Amino acid sequence: MTGGNRGIGRAIAEAFVARGDKVAVTTRSGGAPDGALDVRCDVTDPEQVEAAFATIEEAHGPVEVLIANAGITADTLLLRMSDDDWSSVIDTNLTGSFRLAKRASKGMLRLKRGRIVFISSVVGLLGSAGQVNYAASKSGLVGMARSIARELGSRSITANVVAPGFIETDMTGVLTDEQKAAIKAQVPLGRYGAVEEIAETVLWLTGPGAAYVTGAVIPVDGGLGMGH
Fold this sequence. Notes:
Layout: H1 7-18, E1 24-27, E2 37-40, H2 46-60, E3 65-68, H3 83-111, E4 114-119, H4 123-126, H5 132-152, E5 157-164, H6 170-173, H7 177-186, H8 195-205, E6 217-220
Parallel strand pairs: 1-2, 3-4, 4-5, 5-6
Helix pairs in contact: 1-8, 2-3, 3-5
């Protein structure tokens, strides 16, 4: 999985390790959880993506489950958003996920099985002022997953999307108490989610109980994005 050194990604990686799976985590700066293979990779660089897969396949064999979680933000209002603000977010969040899925699917096709999970966001479907680039990148994952589901389904390869809402992480920790209260007021369950709740959803999607689930968007958002 990508982006597994902190927050949601780390919780997912730790959950797979706890389940007894062979886990490889890619990050740009290191810091994979204990029990996981620590691989450096910038998903915006095709050569680094190829090298990461080569390292992982040598250590663990073909990748059977891909969790594409690496993501960045560069928030600003539309009229202030530079071309670089746009392209950097799209290249990491959307194009990076495309590169990972394309490379992982090669091994999955040979195995005639596989699970691909893209970590999106409630913002991808609900929208968010100041996040035109981020929302576009995260909604793009839905179209990608559903197209992959149609292309690769006959080989027992599934592609799904998990769309977290507001989750307690370092990213939300910087908000003021007033901002946090305003966000919670919009969430029917009246609280932030926990990273473990995202991890449990991903475990289910990649386990035997979800073998007939593909092309789905699973919201884990306390009801924030209902109907979107």
